[in-house]
Design goal:
Helices cover about 15% and strands about 35% of the residues. The protein is mainly β.
Length: about 180
């Protein structure tokens, strides 16, 4: 067994960056917008698909952000942020918050959460987080947020992203009893 503290030296990649991106694109993800307050108190936000749960006790989630992103430094220093899991009807908002060089909040209604963090209405779920820890890996920083408050809209259809396109879910039915049972007791 290999220790996580001393991983083996990896072989050089046998694929290009575009091949890697295309392979990653085969993993369907939800779409989120992460918001915070800027240095002058202005609302800031961006679209991110790198969101995941970490722990129930304490309640932790993670997301990652490329170092080259203009708001990277701001997110490394902010105390709080909110992660909005977008509903299917928020596709235009996802595209707007992914666009460079625009005022992403212009004409967009929003409220305030803990610490004044901008909250966007209509999301399928919202997680208000304390910026608990950060890990630099490769060309991204992984942010772990401790959730202080969360809410969700029952019955909301999520906005999904796969292979460079947006989707919504198509229910295939409930989990089987065998698959639904807990893995650990």
């Amino acid at each position: 067994m290999t220790s996580s503290l001393h991983p083996p030296s990896p072989a050089a990649p046998s694929f290009s960056a575009s091949e890697f991106r295309n392979a990653l694109g085969m993993f369907a993800t939800g779409v989120t917008i992460v918001t915070a307050r800027g240095n002058g108190g202005e609302p800031v936000g961006l679209t991110a698909s790198s969101f995941n749960s970490v722990s129930l006790h304490p309640p932790l989630v993670l997301w990652s952000l490329a170092h080259k992103t203009s708001t990277h430094e701001l997110f490394t220093r902010c105390e709080r942020y909110a992660i909005h899991v977008l509903a299917v009807e928020q596709r235009e908002l996802a595209e707007r918050f992914a666009t460079r060089g625009v005022d992403r909040f212009a004409g967009v209604p929003w409220g305030e959460g803990r610490g004044g963090v901008p909250l966007l209405p209509g999301a399928a779920a919202v997680f208000e987080c304390v910026n608990r820890s950060q890990y630099v890996e490769g060309d991204h920083t992984i942010f772990v947020g401790q959730v202080e408050r969360c809410a969700h809209r029952a019955g909301a259809s999520p906005l999904l992203y796969h292979g460079g396109m947006f989707y919504t879910e198509h229910p295939l039915g409930s989990l089987s009893a065998r698959a639904a049972r807990p893995l650990h007791k």
